[in-house]
Amino acid sequence: MNTEIIKIILAFMVLINPFSALTLFLDLTRGYSMTDRRKVARVASLTIFITISFFTVAGETLLKALGISIGSFQLAGGILVFLIALNMMNGDGNPVKPDQENFDVDHVQSSPPTTAAAVVPLAIPMMIGPGGISTVIIYSSQISGALRVSAVIIAGLLISMFCYLALMAAGRISRLLGDTGLNIMSRIMGMLLAAVSIEIIVNGLRTLFPDLV
Q: Has residue 105 been placed in a domain?
């Protein structure tokens, strides 16, 4: 139980990776007061927590409604997560998350301070995108019982709190690590994510081919 929760927290940490969104957060909130900046960080973190909680509770039901077996989704999700990890280790970032250059940051800054950008694009899809949502559904489909479901939601709460703290310290972290430090951190997280993805793929193969694996 404890080992599984640690795996879930690790997977959430490297997939959500708030450090990859620090530059976007700073650009979006440039010129904002500390109160407005804190509000943007709070809404973004709350959005991440709500997203994790929703797919933890409803993920398996969605798969059944679409007629997708858990084993097939595990295998497909594991491959997706592995491709993300491979790109992160190569220094290319997360391929399923949009490039920050595609966002019209100047338009957001010209508008009055708002929390709309905290939901899209900051929280979704910049921090929690397809890879993160897939992982939530995969892990939620492997558990049963209110206690285990609560444990995953608590893990999501902890990650959301970490995201809030990282966003609030965005300026200091960016100055401390710089582009090189953030790039190294991304590669290390990519290595950890690759190990998580292999576990997901193996579990999917076990589910689909119990006699072969």
A: yes
Cα–Cα distance between 164 and 172 in angstroms, integer? 14
- Number of structural domains found in the chain: 1
Domain limits at 21?
2-207
Contact 62, 137 (CB under 8 A): yes
Q: In this predicted model, what pLDDT tens digit does every residue of 11-52 receive, in sequence order?
A: 788 888 888 888 889 888 888 889 999 999 999 999 999 999
User: Is 213 within the bounds of a domain?
Assistant: no
- In this predicted model, what pLDDT tens digit does every residue of 105-154 receive, in sequence order? 555 554 545 678 889 888 988 899 888 888 888 888 877 778 778 888 98
Q: Is 133 contained in some domain? A: yes
**Model-wide pTM > 0.85:** no
Q: Could you give the CA distance from residue 151 to residue 8 in angstroms, rounded to a whole number?
A: 10
The answer to whether residue 212 is domain-embedded is no
Q: ∠ CA 23-25-30 to the nearest 5 degrees? A: 95
Virtual torsion, Cα 172, 103, 87, 79, nearest 10 deg: 120
Cα–Cα distance, 7 to 3 (Å, whole number): 6
* Inter-residue contact 18 to 162 (CB < 8 Å): yes
Burial of 5 per CB tally in 10 Å (0-12, 13-18, 19+): middle
Residue 190 near residue 4, CB atoms below 8 Å: no
How far is 173 from 160, CA to CA, in rounded Å? 17
Cis amide linkage into residue 121, ω under 30° from 0: yes
